[in-house]
Protein: Branched-chain-amino-acid aminotransferase
Organism: Bacillus aerolatus
Amino acid sequence: MAEHTIQFDLTPERKLKPKSEELGFGKVFTDHMFVMDYTEGQGWHNPRITPYQPLTLDPSSMVFHYGQSVFEGLKAYMTEDNRILLFRPERNFQRLNRSNERLCIPELDEELALEALKQLILTEKEWIPNAEGTSLYIRPFIISTEPFLGVAPSSQYKFIIILSPVGSYYKEGIHPVKILVESEFVRAVAGGTGEAKTAGNYASSLKAQEVASRKEYSQVLWLDGLEKKYIEEVGSMNVFFKINGEIITPALNGSILEGITRNSVIELLKHWGMPVAERRISMEEIREAYKSGQLEEAFGTGTAAVISPIGEFFWNGEKMTVNQGATGPTAKKLYDTITSIQNGKEPDPFNWVVEVDQYITAK
Ligand code: COI
């Protein structure tokens, strides 16, 4: 067990909770948050659950200038029999530490982070929505807080977890989205920070997203940063294609985020005995598959939307419709299965789900 004791400073003032049917994504936050500080020489210290409130930071805090920050995203679900489930949360904290390593942020005690998350969720359990398609989105993040303008790793940090009751990420829900293949901007290059979950990757994606939205596309398809030929990700998600019965996703190459939903999809497909490949795949190959009628499905995968079917690509002046613009059977089956495992409605043959109360130590 981690040696730190989490302090509780709870507020009697509770906010009004939104109605399930009014939930969007990431706009409403619960009454409390978890905070822990890091100081060089002292390590991570003072873990605490405090009222959700604005932070007071020095304007010279390094995060504002050089973007040394990392984050994670995962969800908690309330089952029909009132159990609280997390989906593979240990993987999020493992990835957070990989992101930390890349951004020169000190390693976190993953066990303490998971314990802190569970304690925070139990504190806020009344905020977990239980209507179909809703969950409590969890955003752990770390920011560099040393007041200093030198370009160097910070000597002070804050690790924070905030919670937000959410509905679906895209207004389309599980309905197919239109995707513009991005040929000018790139998201990441191998050797860069593409496989880390760091704020800068998302900041650099905004321009392309803005251009795509103006043309009425929901998201962009990112190509590799070197040749702009090979497919990397879609929007802020991993991407899969079904071509002539085989499901293909770009292999992890140093610039692609190692998605937890991506991994779960691969495991499920294998479990179902469906052919699945992780390999390099070019846009030209997608075009050829489209022309020969073999491009059967395409979809994005991520925590926020789970599965997001793609109904159309636009590339080099050419429109390619996938599955007549409708959600394909593989995307639908994956969505139904993963969300049912997450909600505790279906058996979990992989032991992905973690029940929150089981691991709570007596306070
Ligand atoms: C996800 O698909 O979960 C994401 O990474 C999107 C998130 C940045 C809102």
In short: The radius of gyration is 21 Å. Residues 109 and 324 are 48 Å apart (CA to CA).
